[in-house]
Design a protein that fits this description.
By secondary structure, this protein is α+β, with helices and mostly antiparallel strands. It is built from nine helices and twelve strands. It is globular.
């Protein structure tokens, strides 16, 4: 987790599993490790199979900045072995900062124990959702113990690699992008008032960028009943992932983001360049960026 007053770049290298195809062309989890006839041995064989799949390395870097108008950094992030995550606190200082820290701390517990915490018969999204539910309960207890914290909450967008799948879980308006074969795709949908207007055809996506209520989040980790959006993805050598708070996506257009992701091959330099573009555009909010490459070892 990071809440510095100046830009911090955190290079990370983690060995992760190569992921099988998702969706209709998905990997058969039940037969991938082989059958022994003994449930315990099958679990161990499946777990060992995950270790054998570890032929993909994730090279990642995180950069976070206060921006030009904030007194403190309510963003938090994690970029380490098997897990990358961004959270953007809401509810005003210092409570937004506390909430984003709670959810990142809960997710970070998965990082060193991802293989153990994600049984071979379960998708990695299960572990992510459980960690977010734990954080959600903690935030709820904090609000009940101190009514002055009502409204405290956070967004969260996280990727967890375990075995032959990568789990994506998302709440709020931080974003996940995938650059594959040079094409950028937004993997998450913003949980915001203006995105609802775009979905209904009331305004265009370009108009949403300038809407006065563009920062109104409709779903967050706030101690209330919550169902995060989730998806399963493969990890292919050559793919590049971007996680960011809205401090980037609100002020830098997707086309420009795509160009930077294509041009700057070194992840730390790429992440810093994206933050610099947000600062050049005025950076009215905190800015946090994680760039992660999957590289075959």
């Amino acid at each position: 987790m990071s809440r510095p007053s100046k830009s911090n770049t955190l290079p990370v290298q983690s060995t992760l599993s190569g992921l099988a195809r998702a969706g209709a062309a998905g990997h058969d989890r039940g037969t991938s490790a082989g059958r022994t006839g003994d449930p315990y041995l099958e679990t161990r064989v499946a777990h060992f199979g995950r270790l054998l799949y570890m032929a993909v390395t994730l090279n990642a870097a995180m950069v976070t900045d206060l921006g030009l108008s904030r007194a403190n950094n309510e963003d938090a992030g994690h970029a380490a072995d098997r897990l990358i995550a961004v959270a953007d606190g809401i509810g005003g200082m210092p409570y937004g900062e506390v909430a984003s820290g709670v959810v990142i701390d809960s997710l970070a517990a998965l990082d060193l124990t991802a293989l153990e915490k994600v049984p071979p018969e379960q998708p990695p999204t299960d572990a992510l959702i459980l960690a977010i539910e734990t954080a959600n309960q903690t935030i709820g207890e904090m609000v009940r113990n101190d009514p002055g914290r009502v409204g405290m909450g956070t967004t969260v967008t996280a990727l967890l690699l375990a075995g032959d799948e990568i789990g994506l879980v998302h709440v709020g308006d931080s974003r996940a992008y995938l650059l594959h074969d040079g094409e950028l795709r937004q993997l998450t949908r913003d949980d915001t008032f203006v995105q609802g207007l775009v979905d209904e055809g009331v305004i265009t996506a370009e108009e949403a960028r300038r809407h006065p209520r563009r920062s109104l989040v409709t779903r967050a980790v706030q101690g209330q009943p919550l169902q995060p959006a989730c998806a399963l993805l493969p990890a292919r050598p050559g793919d590049r992932y971007l996680l960011c708070s809205d401090g980037l996506s609100d002020v830098v257009e997707d086309g420009v983001i795509a160009d930077v992701l294509r041009v700057y091959r070194e992840v730390a330099r790429c992440a810093q360049n994206l933050v610099d573009l947000a600062l050049a555009a005025g950076a009215p909010d905190n800015v946090t960026v994680i760039v992660a490459d999957t590289v075959e070892t």
